[in-house]
Amino acid sequence: MTDKQPLLPVRPTRAPNARFPWHHFTMRFSSTPRGARLARRLTGERLDAWGIPYGSDAHDALLLTVAELSSNAVRHGHVSGRDFRLRLSAEGAAIRIEVTDTRGERLPAPNDSTSPDQEGGRGLLVVAALADRWGWYPCADGPGKTVWAVLNVSPSSMQQDPASRRSHVALENPCM
């Protein structure tokens, strides 16, 4: 019998520049405008709970990215009777957004040729401008594709304007 203690499992260490601990959120939504709106609203609440406050630059950029990707999943990735999936992952200083739809033959590509008076076609250009990285990959477990974007969150982008917090509370709760 030896007096050596068994080695404990190795626990991964957090990145030295971690701004918030590991968080993860996944949910399926109906492929309708209402589903896209609900995805955006739940993302806003989740980000606030993770410490990215309403009204901050980071919160607004992340919310706009989710809104654009969810809207694209509804408009271009809709298959009748199928949902789209939103996945948010936060680790270290980055938030990863993934939106999966079931339409694999319609691949995402930014539309650089939109005219100034055209109403749509700029969603992926907005995502490309806001995200540090973005792309897509085909689903391995069935039909469809996942469009993803990664945004690095800096401490300065998490500073909240006090006036925007009051306006958000007023919008959410009409009694205030």
Summarize the structure in words.
With 176 residues, the chain is α+β, with helices and mostly antiparallel strands. The protein is 32% helix and 24% strand. The chain is built from 4 helices and 5 strands. The chain has helices at residues 33-49, 57-76, 123-130, 162-172, and strands at 20-30, 83-92, 94-101, 133-138, 145-152. A 5-stranded antiparallel sheet has the order 1-2-3-5-4, with helices on one face. The model is unreliable at 8-16 and 165-176 (pLDDT under 50).
Helical fraction: 25-40%
Strand sequence of the main sheet, in spatial order?
1-2-3-5-4
H/E topology pattern: EHHEEHEEH
Radius of gyration: 19 Å
Count of beta strands: 5
The coarse overall form would be: globular
Mean pLDDT: 80
- pLDDT under 50 segments (min length 5)? 8-16, 165-176
- Derived structural class: alpha+beta
Terminal residue distance:
70 Å
Q: Beta-strand percentage?
A: 15-25%
Largest β sheet strand count, sense and barrel closure: 5 strands, antiparallel
Can you count the helices?
4
What is the topology?
Elements: E1 20-30, H1 33-49, H2 57-76, E2 83-92, E3 94-101, H3 123-130, E4 133-138, E5 145-152, H4 162-172
Antiparallel strand pairs: 1-2, 2-3, 3-5, 4-5
Helix pairs in contact: 1-2, 2-3
